[in-house]
Amino acid sequence: MKKLLKEHRCLSDALYFEARGEGERGQKAIAEVIFTRLQKGKYGHSICAVVYEGAGQPNCQFSFTCNGALHKTKQYGPWMKAQQLAARILTGEEPLKGATGGAINFHAASVDPDWAGELARTTQIGNHVFYKKPGIKREM
To answer: Which Pfam families match (predicted)?
Structure first.
């Protein structure tokens, strides 16, 4: 039970900090990236390992784990919604349907990271652009 609660917290953190303004569709897209990475096995073997890979380092995988956002006070309403969605995803009540096309990376549409040219763009959902490795078929 303790591990499940920790995994729920890590998924909730990612949904909140990466997409709280994107609604459920945008938050589910972030969850899809996390689960695709988890499925690949080379980004970590738990939700927490995937989300916090590189935390505190310049090359962290999720910006909130290295830019100080994690230590800021959360807004109650959006935090509760992120936790509820994370619980529904973890229990299978809210299935992830492959909206990102098997993406393993994403970034805000307002930035143009140097790594984006090395990957194949799959879609844009709200303010996030999603990518996968070139030549990989659609997953999930």
So the answer is: Hydrolase_2 (PF07486)
Residue 38 corresponds to which amino acid?
A: L
Is a pLDDT exceeding 70 seen at residue 137? no
For 7-18, what is each residue's pLDDT tens digit? 999 999 999 999
Cβ atoms within 10 A of the Cβ of 26, count?
19
Look up residue 84 and give its two tokens: 């509820």
**Neighbour tally for 69: CB within 10 Å:** 15
Check: CATH 3.40.50 for 2-96?
no
Nearest alpha-carbon partner for 81 in 23, 8, 3:
23
Bridge partner residues of 125 (DSSP): 128
Contact 128, 26 (CB under 8 A): yes
Residue 129 phi/psi, 5-degree rounding, is -110, 135
User: Would the pTM of this model clear 0.85, i.e. be above it?
Assistant: yes
